[in-house]
Design a protein that fits this description.
Elements lengths: L2 E4 L2 E4 L4 E7 L8 E7 L6 E6 L6 E3 L7 E6 L4 E6 L8 E8 L14 E2 L3 E6 L1
Parallel strand pairs: 2-11
Antiparallel strand pairs: 1-3, 3-8, 4-5, 4-9, 5-6, 7-8, 9-10, 9-11
């Protein structure tokens, strides 16, 4: 499956962005979906994940209460609503698909397909 992330940009601290990730194949509901990010000079880290039907989700502690992951299986899309953004949220954000659709994994090794990334920059 091919994944295309979009929605990144430059925003001031305290602002909001909504990232989207479109999948090329159906059925999109075959996959759990996750968002990861990588800041310059740092390793890729987990942000959020959601199971195939949206029944379970998981968040990194650093984004809990500020970010919300959701999906629309009819549209083959997963979203990441990011509120109260901080400069430390600056990174390239990647969406990923996991063939094991019942688990919202926080481990990058569990994901089978990756999108190309979208840049999010939060200014102070």
């Amino acid at each position: 499956v091919q994944l295309q992330a979009s929605g990144g940009g430059l925003v001031q601290a305290g602002g909001s962005l909504r990232l989207s990730c479109a999948a090329s194949e159906r059925p999109f509901s075959s996959y759990s979906m996750g968002w990861f990010r990588q800041a310059p000079g740092k390793e890729r880290e987990f942000v959020a994940a959601i199971t195939w039907n949206g029944g379970l989700s998981k968040y990194a502690d650093s984004v809990k209460g500020r970010f919300t992951i959701s999906r629309d299986n009819a549209e083959n899309k997963v979203y990441l609503q990011m509120n109260s953004l901080k400069p430390e949220d600056t990174a390239v954000y990647y969406c990923a698909a996991d063939n094991t659709r019942w688990r919202p994994s926080g481990a990058s090794v569990d994901y089978d397909y990756w999108g190309q990334g979208t840049q999010v920059t939060v200014s102070s």
